[in-house]
Amino acid sequence: MSNSTEHASTSPPTQNSKNGLLRYIEQPAVFIPALVLVASFVTLAAVAPTWLGEVLSTLNSTVVADLGWFYVIAVATFVVFSIWIALSPAGSIVLGRHQEDEPEFGLLSWFAMLFAAGMGIGLVFWGVAEPLNHFASPPPGTGEGEAERARAAFDTTFLHWGLHAWAIYVVVGLAVAYAVHRKGRPVSIRWALEPILGDRVKGWVGHVIDIIAIIGTLFGVATSLGLGVSQIGGGLAHLGVVDEATTTVLVLLIAGITALAVVSVVTGVEKGIKWLSNINMGFAGLLMVTVLVLGPTVFILGEFVQQLGSYLQNFLSLSFRTFAFEGEAGATWLSGWTTYYWGWWISWAPFVGVFIARISRGRTVREFVAGVLLVPTLLTFLWFSIMGGSAIYREIYGAGGLINADGEVSTDIALFQLLDGLPMSTLLSVIAIILIVVFFITSSDSGSFVVDMLASGGNPNPPRWSRVLFGVLEGSIAAVLLVAGGGGLQALQTMAILVAVPFSVVMLIMMIATAKALLREHGDVVHRRRAKARDELVDHVTDEVSERVST
Fold first, then answer.
1. How confident is the model over 93-110, as a mean pLDDT?
2. In this prediction, what percent of the chain has a pLDDT beyond 70?
3. Residue whose C-alpha is closest to residue 93's, from 182, 169, 197
């Protein structure tokens, strides 16, 4: 996408008639409303965080909680669609202007970037904490035995972080990648709906779609930055670097890491984001292998194989689990975990989908789906098996201490508590903090890049000044809400999940549009191949006849 020819074909037209600051904004109908709405919400969250938190909590419990069944069936549909489109004849279509196009990035760099963007800091934050939480407070209906609780913990964790999460990204990423790379459209969510909406994507309908995507992405990334920096602060306090992870410490951390993220996003995908993602995978692999070797190795490997089988065996029942017969306890658990996760992944889908579409030029549809769906899922399962498996082993067979007397888990510092029980614990904790920081940077820089592309009318290489603006804005939002306290970050997180409700409907339409476009494209490819074969046959027969006549 960096060459000038393609950029010219995908960029929105330049509007030289604009005056003042507007001449620097490529898509003011999206850029300005999105900024105004985000600024208004953040101001309200900073001024009245408690009141806003209560309002959104009520809205969340009455709207999102009652839509658990909808999220469950919608996300299961995304999984079915992803597998079907990969196995269909349309899977051979190349996400490029020509079937002969080569991938823009090497396989390892591609995997590293989509993995860092797709899961990022969440894996480090929840790698130990989620299996432990489910072990301590298992899903309703789980038996009392430790073995049964452990199996249920990993089944549930694999459900939340496995094929379903990545299928959400496949739906958006594939739709955008096809529109951008195959059809030469700008890098924007709206163009993924063109097969259904037609020219209406060029008007206010398209503007609204992109504004929703921008708001969901900004809120989702800013919330993750706020939650992620709390883990960094907890780790520093755990190591004795600081006495306490105060608000001042957290804000300074956000400022420093945001500055690094801005430098990365200004250098672009080909340099900063790509290099950081590769470094990230190196640190993640180092930490994962070290814990595997120093921890209960045989137990972890056996648990990984067993839980992989359990996940596959129970895939359908887990996919459609709504706890309908578990009463209030079931409804509360579902809304607090599975519905929360599906809403969270959907709120991230515009960001991650657009980003992986941007880096996937030259891949076939089948390569794209297999790469996005299978490889990260297996790596994620291995990560949770090593980190969460080590923690649960310690609780069942070791000294325990990761679950307190009240049956609760210290989510922020659970990773560091686990590392404390291993040799070289201080070094491992330092590596973990570096990993969190780099994940922090890759989430922020790729999020800023995507938001800027959407706000700039789909320009695949948006202006540097606006990249800096959105990078600073993400960090500022997290910092302001941390300073405000009173549940400001929680309000932002709830808002991101609420934004996912309308976007989930957009995704269902997007899925239908992608299937329609790809099947039609495959038909055209087959028709062209047959026409070419027919012409070659006619030419061959003509040559043969001519040769015989001449002799």
1. 85
2. 91
3. 182
**pLDDT over threshold 60, residue 5:** no
* Burial of 434 from C-beta contacts in 10 A (0-12 / 13-18 / 19+): middle
Q: Which pLDDT score, from 0 to 100, does residue 14 have?
A: 42
Query: Sign of dihedral through CA atoms 472, 212, 373, 125?
Result: positive
Asked whether 252 and 86 are in contact (CB, 8 A), the reply is: no
Cα–Cα distance, 54 to 549 (Å, whole number): 91
Tell the burial category of 108 from Cβ atoms under 10 Å away from its Cβ (0-12, 13-18, 19+). Answer: exposed
Q: What is the DSSP string of 422-454?
A: STTHHHHHHHHHHHHHHHHHHHHHHHHHHHHHH
Q: Give the count of beta carbons closer than 10 Å to the beta carbon of residue 270.
A: 15
Euclidean distance between CA atoms 36 and 486, whole angstroms: 23
Nearest C-alpha neighbor of 319 from the set 71, 60, 500, 64: 71
Q: Which amino acid is at 395?
A: E
CA 17 to CA 525: how far, in whole Å?
A: 41
Residue (of 339, 341, 377, 340) closest to 72 by Cα position: 339
Angle between helices 68-87 and 338-358 (to 10 degrees): 40
Q: Are 81 and 167 contacting, i.e. CB atoms less than 8 angstroms apart?
A: yes
Question: Are 179 and 521 contacting, i.e. CB atoms less than 8 angstroms apart?
Answer: no
Residue 364 β-bridge partners: 94
* pLDDT at site 2: 37
Contact by Cβ (8 Å): 502, 212: yes
Tokens of 304: 């990984």
Structure tokens at 247: 């608000």
> Shortest CA distance to 379 belongs to which of 110, 162, 220, 540?
162
- Chain center to CA of 339: 16
Give yes or no for residue 477 having a pLDDT over 70: yes
Residue 175 CB burial class (10 angstroms; 0-12, 13-18, ≥19): buried
> Which token pair is 357?
């579409």
Q: 414 to each of 50, 125, 164, 409, 419, how far by Cα in Å?
A: 28, 9, 25, 7, 9
Structure-block tokens of residue 280: 């990230």
Task: Pick left, alpha or beta for residue 120 (phi over 0 → left; psi -120 to 50 → alpha; otherwise beta).
Answer: left
Q: Which two tokens stand for residue 293?
A: 């070797």
Using H for helix, E for strand and C for coil, what is the string for 37-65? HHHHHHHHHHHCHHHHHHHHHHHHHHHHH
